[in-house]
Prior knowledge:
By secondary structure, the chain is mostly beta strands.
Amino acid sequence: QVQLQESGGGLVQAGGSLRLSCVASGRTFSNYPMAWFRQAPGKEREFVAVVGWSGSIKYYANSVNARFIVSRDNAKNTMFLQMNNLKPEDTAVYFCAASERKRFGIARRSDEFDYWGQGTQVTVSS
C-alpha cells in the first residue's frame, strides 16, 4: 500500500521558518515528480512547488517563489519544503503528492498526481 506522510507543520510567527517533510512508503518515486499543494480554509487546493525526479528541475507558485525551497532525497524516498519568511497568507493545510504517470517528467496540476498525503497544518500568526 502506497502512503505519503507529511510532518513538520505547526504554528509560527510571521517572518519565521518551517521545514516540511514527506516520506513515501510502499513504492519508490525516484523516477517521478513530487509536489506540494496547500489548501486554506474556504479556498481551493493550490499548487505550491514541484521537484522533478532528479531534483534539478523545480517550479514554484509566484506567491512562494524566493521564499520556499523544494528538494528531495531519493535514497530516503523523501521530499522537503523549506519555508522561509512565512506570511499569514501562507496559513493552510499542506499536502504532498506524487505522480506515477510522469516518469522523468514534471507536473503542476493536481490531477496529474496519483498519491496524496493527509496533510499537515501550517499556521502563521501576524
